[in-house]
Amino acid sequence: MSKCFSCLSVLLFLFLGCQTIAQNRTEESIQTRFDTPEGYKRVILKSNTFASYLRHLPLKEKGAPILDYTGQPIPNQNAHMGVIDVSVGSKDLQQCADAAIRLRAEYLWKEKEFDKIEFHFTSGHLYKWNDHKKGMRPVVNANKVTFVKKATFDDSYKNFKNYLNWIFIYAGSISVNKEMDKVTTNQEIKIGDLIVTPGSPGHVVIIVDQAKNDRGESIYLIAEGYTPAQSIHVIKNTNSPSLKGWYKINNNAETITERYPFYTTNVRRFKD
Fold this sequence. Notes:
The protein has helices at 2-24, 30-33, 50-55, 96-110, 129-132, 157-170, 173-179, and strands at 41-42, 80-83, 118-120, 126-128, 136-141, 144-149, 181-182, 194-197, 203-212, 218-224, 233-235, 255-256, 261-262, 267-269. By secondary structure, the protein is an alpha+beta fold.
């Protein structure tokens, strides 16, 4: 009997242990992990919006390193406070502007807004998902781009990812700067906006959360991809420790992030 009792005790321990592990497997998001500084509250968002999608992006476990496209940790692991659980791919393609494009495209895919999934190449040519899924592919000769039917119809998610790879190859900070609307006042800046330095190289970051104080002053969480292609991550802000990683953004001033100085704060917005 004592042997049976011992077996039952072990089984009960394992059952309760598994329950505890399951209960601890709560998926963290940008909203749940990052508190607002004292005096600030997150702005209220409508559901199913791009802003809400970004705020609820899932995060990898605390302390997760930034990995490059080969799966190796990058040298600088001190500039981020969270890694967004979005794949990087196995090629050096999804860099800074591409990370913002990826998040925008994934949101539109999730909402089945397929007609809106379209991005310009740096050359100015527009490549639409609706054309790609019908088999159209870009043929690039110097600055001349033509689109030729080379494949059969395929509207799968796998083919959607292939489409994004084409965008990552031929789009960048210059193209997103051209195709996006300029945000001119500080009061207009919101989640989903990008800060862009167009160039080769340039840089792009994306606003993934926003909070306000009683005076109506906003602060923001910022995420980025980088070169080489690597995990999309939420950036620290060690220049303003009291903001707990959040940033103040001013169109008339610099925005100095942990890994890149935007000497001109050029805020851009995806067209609706």
